[in-house]
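Homework help thread (please don't just give me the answer)

Our assignment gives two proteins as sequence + structure token strings and asks us to describe the second one. The first is just a warm-up. Here they are:
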Amino acid sequence: MSWGIIGTWRMALEGIVEAEKLLKDGQTSIDAIELAVKMVEDHPEYRSVGYGGLPNQDCEVELDAAFMDGDTLSIGAVGSIKDFKNPISIARKLMDEKYNIFLVGQGAEKYAHTMGFERVNMLTDYSKKEWEKKKSQVKLDKLKAYDGHDTVGVVGLDKNGKIVAATSTSGLFMKRPGRIGDSPLSGSGFYADSEIGAASATGVGEDIMKGCISYEIVRLMEEGLHPQDAAEKAVNKLNKKLISKRGKAKDISVVCMNNKGQWGVATNISKFSFVVATETEKPTVYIASFNEGKTTYVKATQEWIDTHTE
């Protein structure tokens, strides 16, 4: 059985390098993808996820995360959780629950504490300084408050055919307290079905959740479309609809993989990086771009990888 893993943004590279080892060894995609996401969450230089994530208007780091098992369609998700180290692991634990699988705010924090998860202040000195700088610029009308966002979304297929999807993010920089984007919402930020494939999205959640785009990509793959065709069709359709109805479409990027290990990517922005590893391809960073309804991508140079964290 083929195996593979694909993740959003260059920040997924280190985690995918380690997750690849587990998948090669025949271990479950759940363990592999949790490891990949945790490594992003733990890295303070990846400012849009986990420790060191960019804070909300009150200078608090609120985190969203989700996990989905394509074998059982089990889902676990948390939103607006503060002061816990690895929200992706809390989301994974919630997949075991029959009810109460999506918890937010104080409820999510109480659950995490009860389950013994590590409580950590996720605000770094750097993130606090960035918040202070952004706040002064916003007051002067020199910068939009919401500049700064990215989700790590990872899809993984193991040798037993289990495909999973996971997401983790600190959401929009300077967001209102309690704001939740698409990342922990099933069908929007992620979706997985081992009989078909899985997808994950990144960008501005307020637009992504208007199209349930991850579910749509999996649905298109079920109809027989190659993952690349499914991703492009879904992104282009939502992009055009948003422009038609609202005059503009905000950032939308997706990654996906089918149950054969074939993958696809699509975006509506000028530069979107992603990382792929399969049984025939070592972990590789690509840079995708959008032009006239078509997504193209090239391999990133080592120099680019060394100088970028997004």
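The one we have to describe:
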Amino acid sequence: MYGKAFAPEYQGSLTTTLSVNSSLVDVLAAGTEQLRAAERSGCPRETARVGLAVAEAHRRLGHVADADREWKASYRAARTAGDAGAMAWALWSGGTLARQRGALTLAWRLLGFAAELGEHGGDILARGYSLAGLAETGRIQGDYEAVSALHEQLLAEARERGEARHTVWALEGIAQMHRNTGSYDTAYAMFEESAAIAAQADDRRGHAWALRGLADIVSVRDGDADRALELLAEAEVTCRTMNLMSALAYNHKMRGNVLYRAGRYAEARDIYQEALTEFRTMSEPRGEALARLGLVKSLARLGRDRDGTAADLAELACVLDRIGLRHARRMVDRARVELGITEDAEGATASPERLREAATA
């Protein structure tokens, strides 16, 4: 049995005034007010704790520079107070921001320090969330072998504590790996379980992400575009209500995927362009690259010239190699095969072996 979901990143005086479902605009307003009060009172511990919520609200709203400033200020205040747990949470926020910005090496470093500080400071949740951040960083890089066991470990720990929000996160992460390796039935079952737990625990953010995962499976496995779009529309209501800008952009990117698979290329083009604009506004390079890939494929299906498509795919391959997103990089190779683009990023004809590898990746 799982209890009601809660948001451990809303700390100090915000613990009782904000919930996991609070609008990010409300979080930012309340957090900023309490942060100023803590600064005036000269209490570094409270400054660090409420500053974390401000940093996270800025990050999730796509205010990258503000988020970067606030997590660092939270860390400095926590260090002044000698509060190892608060230091761990600030580093977790910084590491999560680094991953969002595509700085994966920095994300690994900050999240690793956060996990160590959480353990030494006796903050089980800070340790767990930081390890989850490391697992998620490896997952989005496509290094499933390295992080699958950590995902499973964190899922078991969350289930044992009855912590709904973290259970939902772990289930969705594992489900995504199964989906990306072709185990659609297993992925669907896990997304379905995460949606049920999130609904039971009133975790609307987790529920919206689970619906997105279900929509993906319904589209790719069942070919049911209408049902997939219904699920995404339901999730979008939550994203807009809570001002979940990143989740909304990924929702739109998935809507593009569904439309593309259904052969509705003009509609897919338009929604990919919308998602691309949203990701660029948030300075989120991973989402931007994925939306660009969908846009390039849609334009190719609508008659764009082969040379322009090849050039864009080559550029995307370089971007994804630079960020270190191996799974997404393989998606570019599959797109080349799908669209009949037989030249690699350097303009040389790709070998038959490479094309066969791309087609089966």
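TA reply:
I won't write it for you, but here's a hint about the kind of observation we're looking for: Residues 204-222 form the longest helix (19 residues).
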